[in-house]
Amino acid sequence: MIMDGTYDNALVALSVLIAMLASYTSLRLVARSRISEGWIHQFWIAGAAVVLGGGIWSMHFVGMLAFSIPGIATDYDPALTLLSLGIAIILTGIGFVIAGRGAESFARTSFAGLTMATGIVAMHYMGMAAMRMAGTVTYSTPWVTISVLIAVSAATSAIWIASRDRRFILQVFAAIAMGFAIAGMHYAGMQAASFTMLPNETDSIRPSVSPSFLAILISA
Questions:
Q1: Of 18, 78, 101, 203, which has the most beta carbons under 10 Å away?
Q2: CA-to-CA distance for 191 and 111, rounded, in angstroms?
Q3: 93 and 45 Cβ atoms separated by less than 8 Å
Q4: Pair 136, 196: CB distance under 8 Å
Q5: Contact at 8 Å (CB) between 31 and 171?
């Protein structure tokens, strides 16, 4: 039987805020990297990757904690959950490195954005695969495609903006737009998912940690 889920609006709003804050902070760190040299330059790039990759991951799991299906409890595989975080950070960092100081090149910006988007999409669907529940998940191809296109647009825009303009007000607006785009990718991906409770299956999953506590921990 296909089950419909509901969202906690407060946690949804928190997930969007996390995406915006991560976007803004990463843009500021990339701006610092462009006026630095040597290991300091690499330090700021690494920081931007951790902030944006980790922020996207945090947004994803707070968004997942905002989602619940009546009668079905969920838990997460720790190894896949941590692997999804690592993929987001690593591919985001590679995207920033590819862009480098020469992101004025359209081809280079596009390739960097595609690399970063790959990390975002892989993180999302690996995070979905980490779910443990008494049911199965199937995906709608059109909505998956939409989520991928949103991720590519958001990542490419992030690279483009980070390489061109360091004015505070424009970075604020860029972070707001990126935050909505990152959250849009997540919720489009969730729209793609259909959850089916297995027949004659009892829900033996019990969350190992309180969802509310976990949401606070991830947000921090």
A1: 18
A2: 27
A3: yes
A4: yes
A5: yes
> Residue 74: what residue type?
T
Name the DSSP class of 198: P
Closest among 148, 153, 155 to 115, alpha carbons compared: 155
Which amino acid, 150?
Answer: I
Neighbours of 57 (CB within 10 A): 27
Structure tokens at 154: 């958001």
Band (181; pLDDT cuts 50, 70, 90)? confident
Q: Over the range 22-52, which residues count as b (16 or more CB within 10 Å of their CB) and which as e?
A: bbbbbbbbbbbbeeeeeeebeebbbbbbbbb
Residue 121 has pLDDT above 70, yes or no: yes
Answer yes or no: is pLDDT of 161 > 90. no
CA torsion sign for 186, 190, 144, 132 is: positive
Q: Which amino acid is at 16?
A: V
Cα distances (Å, whole numbers) of residue 189 to 30, 120, 123, 171, 182:
28, 11, 11, 26, 11
CA–CA separation, 4 and 73 (whole Å): 13
